[in-house]
Amino acid sequence: MKKKKILAMFLAIAMAASMAACGGSSEPASGGASESGETAAPGEEKLSSRDTLNMASKSEPTSLDPAQTKDLVTWMFMYNVSDPLLYFNWETQEYEGAVATDWEISDDGLEYTFTIRDGIKFHNGDTMTVDDVVFSLNRAIASAFTAQTNTCIDHFEKAGDNQVKAVLKYAYAPFLEIMTNPAYAIVSQRAVEECEAAGRDFGREPVGCGAYKLKSWQSGNKLEFERFDDYYRGQPKMKYINWTIITDASAGAMALESGEIDYYYGLAKSDIPHLMELPNLQYKLDDRGFGLYDITFNTTDGPFTDVNLRKAVAYAINREEILQGGADGYGTVDNCWCATGCTGYLPDFEWYEQDLDKARECLAAAGYPDGIDIVFTQDSSDTYMAPAEVMQAQLAQVGINVTFEKLQRSVWIDTVSGNRDFVASLRMTNHVVNDAEYLLRRRLTTDMLGGGNNYSGYQNPEFDALVEQSATETDPEKRNEIFRQCYEMIKEDVPVIPLYTGTNPIIINSKVRGWTFHPLERNVWANAYLVE
């Protein structure tokens, strides 16, 4: 059996190479009147008498049932209600045991055996058993909500009084990352079955093993969480965490500035520079992230079936200007089609630089020496329209005249992602799994054509084979070389154009200590506390 230390060594090498090459340190930038997230010993600063963290979000969770969740907002809440087998520590870039204490990997990579921590309590007072773990994990992979992450998993089974075995359909190098996903958090089997038998929604009365338990939920208004004193990692420092729903981002910013709340999720970019300068707030900003903005072409129907026209767009745009003008500079230009925070991002890879003469040459080679009119089908949100309008002005310089079909989010998903009824679109995709293979497979392999995945229609058997190889190769250097070959093919065929990885600072009351940072808002609040 391969011990976890061997895989951890591989991961550490890969992460260290990625971080060093990105030019970013392991410490995110911080500002305001105090260093962000600095954990002071309780004896060094006077503790606040306040026992409640007051948080707010632009929207509320869809459910607090792990198996019924897949969006980042919901996971932000879920990460403190119930724990998965593992955590990924963003600061150290290492996997840490959560519900599991240890793990082993079979030589063929098809079986992972996890040792379950003794004595973990659920919020209802029950002691967790291996049966609860097996039940939770098999329930997760049976759910449609985990379809993006469960394809490699066959089943989970009991492997002794304190062990659970994951049996895979095929070896999958990033499997441990899936085991950090909140959708795979462990819940009480008894509580789930009692809710189902009574016709109640477990997602509204969850029984997990996390640091906080749900006290009340007023839809559209507030969620209140109470400290779980029997939390297996130690009693959380704050007694309560209250989340208020503030749908207006400007109102959320004002509440944060005034001290009415300690944190707000969903800040408008226009409010961020002002808030970052306030002495009563602190922030963390990392140049690594998981949200990749790109231009996706329909390569099977319409004018962008011609690679010359796709290359014309690649040469015509200035991606740094799109980042600055469309996202106020909050992000990092991507040199390859992978978000900057992911394993497999290669910062030394070179993408097309703006060259208007070459853009015009490619335009002529595509049969449009006098230019062409193009419709971009867009999500109407300013998140996408702002960078798209910068792109529009740049393309006009070479005669590519862009107009927009603006759609509401749900309609855009059906039109572009579902039905592939579009010519081109500027959009963003989050790496749900912290690995380049995830997005390469989901968005560009032949097997994923349609169904909301590969909507560019790109089909390349050689590319498909490389992605398959990347899924099973565990050597970090060999994996990066495979990814490099994939990026070279994308650069040559241009089914997509990587633009930038979006990043936003996390801004919080300067009196909060002990909180942990994660760019996907998987922030753990168990060790957070307030000082005077």
UniProtKB/TrEMBL annotation:
GO biological process entries: peptide transport
Spans annotated as Disordered: 22-50
Domain of life, source organism: Bacteria
Domain Solute-binding protein family, first and last residues per copy: 94-440
Keyword Signal attributed: yes
Biased composition (Low complexity): 22-42
Classification via Pfam families: SBP_bac_5
UniProt keywords, alphabetically: Signal
Region forming the signal peptide: 1-20
Compartment(s) of residence: Cell membrane
InterPro entries: Peptide/Ni-bd, SBP_5, SBP_5_CS, SBP_5_dom
Cellular component GO terms held in the UniProt record: ATP-binding cassette (ABC) transporter complex; periplasmic space
Gene Ontology MF term list: peptide transmembrane transporter activity
Its membrane topology: Lipid-anchor
Record has Translocase as a keyword: no
Family named by the database record: Belongs to the bacterial solute-binding protein 5 family.
Annotated protein name in UniProt: ABC transporter substrate-binding protein
Protein species of origin: Candidatus Enterocloster faecavium
